[in-house]
């Protein structure tokens, strides 16, 4: 069996009428990024390129293994990716950061996970309208929370096994255009 890897991919491109590049998230399983080109294009018609991707091997004390199959009913522990939005003084833009973490159970605090991130924490000192947040505006305690994506729910046909481990496996992060021919598919 091939070595299955969990990819979290930032797709970039333009939809009809866009004046600025838009972005979307693709979650997929494969041995190499290129093997998922058709899936990426199908997942978002605006796709023209890959801006960045992560291969997740270890998050919050858990090694990640991917196996074919159907996920169990239990949701916890749950691997999620939070989309943190934040601002910086003097910059005319909203910055975004994708932050993977594991929720141990229904009582696990998303706030605590977010507070670990220096950009998010720094942004909490800003005014109400400009403080760091998650974009779909779910409110968790006093934080605005953008998107928190359950990774398993976006991987039909595969199971994410989260295995407690003290040996931290390295995650892989690649920034910049990986390929730009997704629009031709």
Ordered list of secondary-structure elements with their pairings:
Elements: E1 5-13, E2 22-30, H1 37-43, E3 47-56, E4 58-59, E5 62-68, E6 78-86, E7 95-103, H2 110-115, H3 118-123, E8 133-134, E9 138-140, E10 143-145, E11 148-150, E12 158-164, E13 172-175
Antiparallel strand pairs: 1-2, 1-3, 3-13, 4-5, 5-12, 6-7, 6-8, 6-11, 9-10
Strand order of the largest sheet: 2-1-3-13
Question: What does the main sheet amount to?
Answer: 4 strands, antiparallel
Helix fraction, binned, reads 10-25%
Shape estimate = globular
First-last Cα distance: 27 Å
User: Which blocks of ≥5 consecutive residues have pLDDT under 50?
Assistant: 132-145
Q: What's the helix count?
A: 3
Radius of gyration, in Å, reads: 17 Å
What's the pLDDT, averaged over the residues?
80
Q: Which strand-content bin applies to the residues? A: 35-45%
The total strand number stands at 13
Order of helices and strands: EEHEEEEEHHEEEEEE
Computed structural class: mainly beta
């Amino acid at each position: 069996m091939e070595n299955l890897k969990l990819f979290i991919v930032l797709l970039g491109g333009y939809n009809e009428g866009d004046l600025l590049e838009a972005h979307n998230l693709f979650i997929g399983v494969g041995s190499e990024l290129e093997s998922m080109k058709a899936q990426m294009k199908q997942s978002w018609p605006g796709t023209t390129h890959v801006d960045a991707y992560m291969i997740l091997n270890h998050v919050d004390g858990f090694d990640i293994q991917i196996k074919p199959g159907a996920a169990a009913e239990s949701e916890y522990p749950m691997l999620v990716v939070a989309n943190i939005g934040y601002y910086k003084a003097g910059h005319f833009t909203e910055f975004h950061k994708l932050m993977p973490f594991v929720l141990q159970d229904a009582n696990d605090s998303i706030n605590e996970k977010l507070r670990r991130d220096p950009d998010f924490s720094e942004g909490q000192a800003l005014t109400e309208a400009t403080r760091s947040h998650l974009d779909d505006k779910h409110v968790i305690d006093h934080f605005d929370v953008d998107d928190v994506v359950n990774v398993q729910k976006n991987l039909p046909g595969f199971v994410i096994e989260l295995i407690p481990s003290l040996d931290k496996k390295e995650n892989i992060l690649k920034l910049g255009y990986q390929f730009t021919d997704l629009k031709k598919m």
